[in-house]
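Hello support,

Our group uses your service weekly, and this is the first time we've seen a run hang past the timeout. The protein is MFS transporter. I'm not sure whether the cause is the sequence or the server load. Input pasted verbatim:
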Amino acid sequence: MAESMPAVPREQSGRSRPLWREPGVWQLLTVTALGFTSFFLTLGSVPLWAVRGGASDASAGSVTAVMLGFTVLIQTMVPALQRRVGSATLLALGLLALGAPAPFYLLGDHLPGLIAVSAIRGVGFGLLTVVAARLVSQVAPSNRQGKAVGLYGLAIAVPNLLAVPAGAALTSSNHFFWVAVLAACPVLAIPLVRVFRGSDSTAVSSGESGKASPHTSRAPARHGVAGAVRVAIVPSVVLLVVTLSGGGLVTFLPIALSDGQLASITLLVFGITGTLGRWQAGMINDRIGMRLLLPAALVASALGLAAVAAALPGSGDGNAGTIWTVAMLAGAAIFGAGYGATQNLTQIAVFARAGERHAVTASAVWNIFFDAGTAIGSYGVGLVAATGLHLTGTFVVCAVLVAAAVPAAIAAGTRG
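Update from on-call engineer: The timeout came from a worker crash unrelated to the input. Re-ran successfully.
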């Protein structure tokens, strides 16, 4: 039987013990991996299942829109709910709501039923994302926060790489049954949440004592809830402009490229370097801090997007296409690295600025901006492209927007 987390400052743990052996770390990574596997398995496959049932391409997208809408709605409520029932209970409810309804997709492929199931799962996903992100700052010693956030990012990124194409492939080959069954996997992680039963009392204790790491220190609890929201806004805005661009790239690049194989390879490269960027940025941050690292991630993101935009018109044109294809892949790789690093570093920043006592509020703000940015990019990039800029010009606009956020990135690297 799992033991609850001890109410002692996490700073007392040394570097001699592997991070995964710290109380709660491997449990959190397992919970995260199973939860996001469920989410990513159905992200592209449920809309495809809806199309198989007769829905139009446009209306099928409402399945994802409704799910993320309920995700953002519940994320705004998590801080208040956490104070009432505790992190462990919320995490268990999130895993249950995300996983248990998934087999009900098999009751039919009509849009209203699929939307109803997705709405419930969106509530579960919102609870999972906020609580799990907050627990990252709690289970690891403060001088290893960057590495912990990197491992947390890896637990999300690997399911992203594997589950999205797997779900689409299973559905396309008429095996959606397995998607719906496998998407129930978060339920298996519910017994693991018992280890987090003491995390809320630990948060109060560790928020007021212990030495602070120079780069990822926990701010004293000098902010109220409103103050915690305020200081989390700047890093979250930086995150939003990058995830907006990423959402646009993932959604519209396959539409813009006539070569479906090139689109798949480009997105795979983007995913791989995003995974590596999110993982490695935390460990680099532990050594040098984010004052220069976060602005560098944004510069890389802007340059990568600009390269993708420049390569897009010629990426499929005969002999010249070879050069542009290389530029496309290089741009996607650079943007992916900056995209992943920005996620990691802004997550560290909101916790450092808000303080441990208001980590749940900071986590909610960060997750809301993440999901909102992705949703805006997935819809808004198409609207801008339709004005006559086309996708090439729209990606240039995105690159300029990311570059314009560099001053905010510099500010985000300072204490709130």
